[in-house]
Amino acid sequence: MDAESFLEFASQVTKLKMYPYFDVAHSVLCALHVRDDLGPGALAFSRKHPISCWLSTMLVVFAGGMLSAALLGEPPLAPLKNTQQLVIATAVWYLVFYTPFDIGYSISKFLPVKLVFSVMKEIYRCKKVHDGVLHAAKLYPNAYIIMIIVGTLKGNGASFTKIIERLLRGVWTPTSIETLQPSFTTKACIIASVVFVLDIKSDLISAPHAFVYVFVIGFFIYFKVFSSMILGIHEPMLPFENLICALFFGGIFDYTTKAFKSNKDEKSDTKKKD
């Protein structure tokens, strides 16, 4: 494929409409997340507490829009005004939890089906991050940190509302706050937001915007789908994080101090023996 054909392809990708197929893929994976988080008692919980189950699923589906809206001074419930998307999310929730013989859940968990939905979800995620950065840029043209924060929350809001989502199901897990142990999805959304900010607000990236958009999609799909689901690598950035922590956040100095103290203690013990 030559550059001109690829640019045309990339331009078409940026114009993809998320409704209804990508919304379905996003809702399916959100419902699966809630059900898997419930564990072996998921079916019993869904029968006994259907309202709580529905609320927690809707929070996961619309978390990004709600969080970003709240931070930007907009009504947090504004994402729910999209009746079509709300109907899709509710229908998917019902199919995952209440179909006879658990057919809906079994089909959704079937690996080829889940792989297709996961690829669609990452395209959907890229769209959300991109829209979040653009929206924040319109409100705060020179506030780059706000653009990155909003883009990150739009792309992975469910991780930041996990503590509330579980609380709706009667489970209190204060250690599940995303800022304590950020997932790779959050880190990937931060990187994508930074890339979009640099592309929109600076001249550091000279490639056409459509190229950058498709590159971010490829980044999400490779690391979130291929690397995680197929290769089983869930933290591909861990070696780089360890290196950065060692160089810039005191790691190498702590290690040196510990080694020096250990060596000093050994010499002291040797003198005592003598």
Automatic annotation (TrEMBL):
Chief location: membrane
Transmembrane regions: 53-73, 85-105, 210-231, 237-257
Keywords per UniProt: Ion channel, Ion transport, Membrane, Potassium, Potassium channel, Potassium transport, Transmembrane, Transmembrane helix, Transport
Pfam families cross-referenced by the UniProt entry: TRIC
Coiled coil segments of this chain: none
Lipid bilayer topology: Multi-pass membrane protein
CC per GO annotation: endomembrane system; membrane
Localization per Swiss-Prot or TrEMBL: Endomembrane system
GO terms for MF: identical protein binding; potassium channel activity
Similarity field: Belongs to the TMEM38 family.
PANTHER family reported in the protein's UniProt record: GH25683P, TRIMERIC INTRACELLULAR CATION CHANNEL
Protein name: Trimeric intracellular cation channel type 1B.1
Species: Sipha flava (yellow sugarcane aphid)
